[in-house]
Amino acid sequence: MRPDPDLAAAFEATWPAFETVRCGGFLVGRGAGAGGRVSSAIAVGPWGDADIDAACARHAAWGQPPLFRAWDDDTDLIAALTARGLGAHIPTQVMAAPIAALTDRPIPPVTAFAIWPPLAIQRQIWGAGNITPARQAVIDRVPLPKAALLGRIRDRAAGAGFVALHDRTAMVHAVEVLPAFRRQGLAGWMMRQAAAWAQDLGATRIGLAVSRANTTAQATYASLGFTAAGSYAYYGPAA
C-alpha cells in the first residue's frame, strides 16, 4: 500500500534531503546525518540491477551505508534488495486525515501555537528527544509555508513539532513531548493546532508518518481521525 500521488509528493517535499542525485530509476538522498528518511534511495521510475549498483555507489561516495526506502507493495524492488542481503528496518505507516476532522473543536487557551521561526525552547525540546541538530537542519531548509508547533501543559512548554504545506496537503513531522508530560493529550492538541494553521492556508488534508512499532502514537492519531494511507520500510545492511 502506498499513498496517493498528492500525499506522496507532500511527504517528500516537506522533509527534503540535503541533496539528491538521480541514479537511473532511483533518486538517492544525501542526509548529512539527518536519518534514514533523507539518506535513502527511492524508486522514481523503471530500474534495473545496474541502477541499484549505481545507487549503492552514490551512497558510498557520500559515506552513507546503502539504504533504500520501499513501499510495501513494491514487491519486485523488495525481492531484488533482499536478494542482495539488504534487510527490512523500521516499518513505518503513513497516516492521513481530512483537515476538518481536527478542527471541530476549539483548542484550550495557551495550549498550542504554530509559529516561525522556532523558539529556543522548541529546539531544546527537539534536542531532548530524537530531533538532533541535523534533523533540525532539515526543518530549516523546508520552503515556506511552514510552522513550528509549541505545546504547553501545566504552565510550561512541554512539546514541539513541525508542520509544512505542499499544495493542499499539510505534513507533520518531528513531534516530541517531554517524557514527564506524555500521555496527557498534549500531542493531540498540537496536531489540532497544525490542522488549524494549515486550514487557514487552504489545506484540505493532513498527514504524518509513524513507526509501526509505536502503537501508542498510532492510537492517538487514529482517535483524531487519521487512517492508514501507506506503509514502507527501509532496506539496508543488518544492524
Question: Outline of this structure?
Answer:
GO terms for molecular function: acyltransferase activity, transferring groups other than amino-acyl groups. The chain has 239 residues and is α+β, with helices and mostly antiparallel strands. The chain has 7 helices and 11 strands.
Description:
The protein has 239 residues and is α+β, with helices and mostly antiparallel strands. It folds into 2 domains: 5-91, no CATH class; 96-233, Gcn5-related N-acetyltransferase (GNAT) (Aminopeptidase, 3-Layer(aba) Sandwich), CATH 3.40.630.30. Helices cover 31% and strands 33% of the residues. It contains 7 helices and 11 strands. The strands form 2 sheets. An 8-stranded mixed β-sheet has the order 4-11-5-10-9-8-7-6, with helices on both faces. The protein starts with a helix and ends with a strand. The mean pLDDT is 97.
Figure out the total of helices.
7
- Overall 3D shape: globular
| Cα gyration radius (Å) | 18 Å
- Annotation, overall tally of beta strands: 11
The CATH homologous superfamily of the largest domain: Gcn5-related N-acetyltransferase (GNAT)
Chain-averaged pLDDT:
97
Main beta-sheet annotation: 8 strands, mixed
Strand order within the widest sheet? 4-11-5-10-9-8-7-6
Structural class: alpha+beta
Strand content: 25-35%
Low-confidence blocks of residues: none
* Element order: H for helix, E for strand: HEEEHEHEEHHEEEHEHE
Distance between the termini: 26 Å
Question: Quick one: CATH class of the largest domain?
Answer: Alpha Beta
Do you know the CATH architecture of the largest domain?
Answer: 3-Layer(aba) Sandwich
Helix content: 25-40%
| Count of folded domains | 2
CATH topology of the largest domain: Aminopeptidase
